[in-house]
Amino acid sequence: MIKLKTTTEIRQLKKIHSIAGIGYWVYNYSTKDFWWSDVTHSILGYQDGNVIPTRDILKKHIHPEDLVFFEESLKQMQLQPMEIEFRFYKNGELRLGKITGEVYKKEDIIEEVLFQDITDIKIKEFEIAKAWNKALEAENLKNAFLANMSHELRTPLNSIIGFSELLESGNIKEDIPKFASSIKDSGLQLLKIIEDLLKVSMLESRTAKPVKRNFNLHNMMKDVESLTHKLLSNNKKEHLQLKFPNIDVNQVIKSDQNKIIGILSNLLHNAVKFTEKGSITCSYRFINQTIEFTISDTGKGIPAKSQSNVFQRFRQANENSINNFGGTGLGLYISRLEIELLGGKIWIASEEKIGTTVKFSLPNVIDQELINEADSTANLYNWENYTVVVAEDQFTNYKILEAYLQPTNINIIWAKTGKEAMTASLQNPEVNLILMDINMPHTNGLEATKLIKKKRPDLTIIAQTAYALEGDREKSLKAGCSEHLSKPFNKSDLLLCMSRYLP
């Protein structure tokens, strides 16, 4: 066996300490001699040889609040090995150190200590712990969301399936309207959940884009007020006082009307849900070219510690409120993303047992060239001299459209495929409009539209489809459609859309 020389061993030990960043000092209690290694010089911020090591110089680097603890630990080291952590200064910067040492008593009393700067290690440990806690929180939120979503989906499905089975049996006749109404309400509830999930996906993926058009602000607020009254009625809260601005000026603004209605509906839905007595107020004001909406209630309020979470996804002011009040916890998150998409911002002020006020602002909604517009939409339509082709392969969907259109006296031709739609429109010159489903057998709606437009370029074609993702509207318009209606749409949406092209 080869025995290394002492100088070689010392050199190797210094190299190991340098790589590991571990300093080393030796103190002789008998002679008061003090020595520390090059790494110790570096840890304390000195260049090797710039300072003569002493106990007093070492103590000057220790944080004043840790100095007594540090000195007592060195005394205890004479009785047993010690490992401690403490704060120290390096060139004026506060750092965190660790020493591990013991005292040997032979001819002299010798203190040998390993010294390490663990600041970066602790920071990394903290960041790892923070990331881990964040991951755990996300996992817990996900699990809570999935459990709640299962409940939110199964509740309306249970109603739909249950009442459908009763209707299918044919033994119950007097309650048919009541059962049908319950199925419709549950279907709308289920649709709202699906729409929320799709909105989140589109907004987070940055595929959603605002569609800004001129619209009458007063008329929109009247529609929102009507929806809120219906919401109060459905929740048996007609006793609440609802306050909306009573303004007759036909102010026209330019923004995404559908998104604003959705945002206001979400905020007012929350106000209704969490308010048992008092009032709910919805108002707006203009600040230069910015509009600021305010929704206030006298409800239960939000705890101060939870107010920063309410605009995060899957979060509610009180996680237990999911069970008490229902909901997916996506409403305010969607509202925040849509407001940011429109270039605005949203904020909240709330006090428990007093109420909540939510405000959001949207910039650049005033155009100097806009003029006041009056609502000229007719309440009744009579199109007895016109013909429409309903291109729809699903029988139930066709029957719904037929029921919507029958009161207008319009002539209806049913086409079950894209090919039949082409034949009907090209062989019947009296056809004035086509309601074109996109997903049809043989020839899809977009291909059929392109072929029809080559023969009859002036014929109005309205896409009515279950494709509702960002970009689907553009595909329909590019193929030659004049409008794009996303299923499900209601009767008024359909008739209003058709009225733009039929006198």
UniProtKB/TrEMBL annotation:
Source organism of this protein record: Marinifilum flexuosum
Keyword Kinase found: yes
Modified residues (4-aspartylphosphate): 437
PANTHER family with a match to the protein in the record: OSMOSENSING HISTIDINE PROTEIN KINASE SLN1, TWO-COMPONENT HISTIDINE PROTEIN KINASE
Domain Histidine kinase: 148-366
Keywords from the named record: Kinase, Phosphoprotein, Transferase
SUPFAM superfamilies for the chain: ATPase domain of HSP90 chaperone/DNA topoisomerase II/histidine kinase (SSF55874), CheY-like (SSF52172), Homodimeric domain of signal transducing histidine kinase (SSF47384), PYP-like sensor domain (PAS domain) (SSF55785)
GO molecular function term, any single one: histidine phosphotransfer kinase activity
CC annotations in GO: plasma membrane
Pfam short name (any one): HATPase_c
Enzyme type, top EC level: transferase
Protein name (Swiss-Prot/TrEMBL): histidine kinase
